Amino acid sequence: MITMNIINQKQAVMIENLTKEFDQQKVIDRLSFTQNQNETVAILGKNGSGKTTLIKLLIGLYQPTSGRVELLGQDPVAHPAVKEKISYLSGDYSLYPNLTVRETIELAASLYNTEIDPDKAFNILRKEDIELDKEIKLLSRGQLQLVKLAAALVNDPDLIILDEPTSGLDILVRQRFLARLCWYKDEENINLLFTSHNFSEISQLADRIILLDQGKKLADLKMEELPDVNKEIIFIPQKELEVSDLGLDKIHGINQITLEDNKFIINYSKDEANILYRLSEIPYLSLKIKEPDLADIFQELIEGGRQDESE
Amino acid sequence: MSLNKYKLLLKKEWANNRWKVLIVSVFLLVTSTILVLQYPMVQRTLELGILDELPGWMTGGMERQLNFHYYLADGWFDGSLAQYGTLLAVLLGMGVIGSEFQDGTLPFLLARPIDRVRLFKIKLGFQIFIMVLFMIIVTAYLGLFASFQGREIYLFRFIIALIPLGLKLLVAFLITVNLSLFLKDQIKSGIFSLAIILAFWVIANLTPLYNIFYYYWGNLAEYYVYGSFPTVDTALLIILNIGLYGLALSRFKKIDI
Description:
The structure holds two protein chains of two kinds. Chain A is an alpha/beta fold. Helices cover about 30% and strands about 30% of the residues of chain A. Chain B is built from twelve helices and no strands. Chains A and B meet through strand 5 and helix 3 of A and helix 1 and helix 6 of B.
């Protein structure tokens, strides 16, 4: 029994033959995987692949049709106390519009059985210049996500489960949100499990990718095993500039910068956060990331996954 | 269960419902004032013998309105409070879970360690508390206003009559909660609940015994005037409410959110 516990504690998440059916249609189909401690796992999949259903099963919002889930070594349904150290953040759910930011955090803190001091979450929000006495309905989408992040950190979690955490955010706000998330993850040693269909998000955060398609695991890969993917930023500054004015010469991940009619096309393979940080300091008319075609990445990953299975 | 711990949850519940309660309360306060003030006019009209000129099926039991106690209880417990109270019960029932589904706010609560059963009890308990408080306040106002107008009130029966009436309103409330758990939409659940209640009301003209919202079922004016408490009807209402509560709770425990 003691040995079992030690083994379990090494796993942040354990899923075994998990199945979820809606109207006799399998949305999650006998899915199994584990996530080790200090590991960030991304669930990558197209819309309708079962990502959100999986997350809702993990957090207990959906009841599984069959199979087993363990978070931090315990079944969250049989031992709900394990949720004291787990948090959930989604771009999807809403906060109460009539509560203030302060009340939202206090409400979140009041739902735990242990005594929780909300000051830490308040400090996070103060650093982001979010007024604590402002009503939720008056916040921007980016600020709302930061309030959700602060509410997710209020219980000092060991595991945060995120479902499309940056959906609907513009590039710079998304970048800022991801930077904060990365910082807290490293600073507080938090395990992250998140879903996304955004490749740059995954490449910034994840140690490992699980590829989901029609509720089945198609591939389970470490980040090092991913193919090199080139991306492009299209940047139009407010006034005419030369390539050297962008200040990107010291960033190593850039492959090529082309300039056509004051429109810069920056082709790069890594260091996205640094590039965006630099560009955000220049007044601009437009800043867009041209994401690689997910279908191509999928194809490569699926083929890689199939090769792994055959080996 | 510490209420202080959940004060923000309760504050949120009140913020979501305060306008419903306040608007229905204002309507009822006005109605109760009119009910007392217009009695002399009703009395004079009835004393003129108009009822004798009308066919019996139109005037059945109206002569009892000459008795102020019957007039007051019939107009209040079987009339205004039953009708507006039912409306408020449906409005509150829509908001317990239905509005959270619609607004997408339930995951914020349920992803945390709070037990679903406890959350359900807190939310339902608070709405029922609001409903009880509402009934007591508006009925107390009616009693006080009638007393100031020099009318006699049977205080004990005035209070006790609220029990079966409250149970009737609770049925309307729990029907709406159950529907909101199936439909996951507050507006639809409200419309369907009102449609069900209205259908019973219409059918009641044929078979009044089957309609808990109709005054034959636990006739509170009869109780208020003559003191014959509707024990069997009240017991049946309690059983019906327990059944509806159990159904809603078991659905909420298992529902995918």
